[in-house]
Amino acid sequence: MNLTIIKNFSSLNSKILFIPIVLLLGMTVFFISENLLIDNYYSFIQKDYFQWINKELSNYPNLIYNLTQFGDVLIILSFLAVFIVYAPELWKGLIPSILISGILTPLFKNCFKVPRPAAIYDLSDFTIIGKTLKGYNSFPSGHSTTIFTVLTVIMIAFMPQRTINKIVWCVGVLLMAYILAFTRVGVGAHYPLDVISGSILGFICGILGILSYQKYKFWHWINNKKYYPIFISLFLISIIILGVKIYHTQLLIFYISIVSLLISLYTIINAYVKK
């Protein structure tokens, strides 16, 4: 598994960034040049699409509210924690990707300060699932960025060799990513364009993280078992945080995340003891 990831990460070409960067810059330039971010015009031109998607998805509130949690870094990474033992090369691409995402996402949000749907629309016009968010940090969707950042790294890491398999694999992963990302519209937290822009930004972050993996060997220590106590501590802290989340909101996804972390904790402790 590690050899496959190394091969796929090493063969990634930076030219793949050209189209998503052009798309993201094109979107932002268009929004600014057409004054779409002034007087809440950005919000109103999407109202019909937002309400339609929100109405359709909010018919499944429990499912949507659980799935949207995958945009939480803690949740989505809890399902990948075990790879620290079995495929540490994956984490060498994940960590820098997440860090880049953590820098670029708030940068975009602070630059544009777009009001969220609940800050603009009448609350009776759409469904809110979970906490009502009324801040001015809607563009781009941070949850969507996280989802696409992580799934882009996974997509590249486990890319099949045959062309037809590559197509099926990429379509499947991207379809899953968009299903998860558009739950942000379903819960009433973001506009469709927030999700689309977040998906592009997340793809860019994922690719940048892998390219940094190629150039820098800063994360080579992940392979060394003597550093496993760091991850053991992080797993324990994460389990406590998830326990608090369950106390406040008893979502199924939180229970599954804890189980995943407990399995990973057992695996890494077992590997460390046998060093």
From TrEMBL:
Localization per record: Cell membrane
Gene Ontology CC: plasma membrane
CDD domains cross-referenced by the UniProt entry: PAP2_like
Membrane topology: Multi-pass membrane protein
Domain called Phosphatidic acid phosphatase type 2/haloperoxidase: residue spans: 92-210
Chief location bin: membrane
Molecular function terms, GO-annotated: hydrolase activity
Superkingdom field: Bacteria
InterPro entries to which the protein is assigned, alphabetical: PAP2/HPO, PAP2/HPO_sf
UniProt keyword annotation of Hydrolase present: yes
Record field: transmembrane: 16-42, 63-87, 141-160, 167-189, 195-214, 226-246, 252-273
Sorted UniProt keywords: Cell membrane, Hydrolase, Membrane, Transmembrane, Transmembrane helix
Keyword Lyase: no
Identification of the protein by name: Phosphatase PAP2 family protein
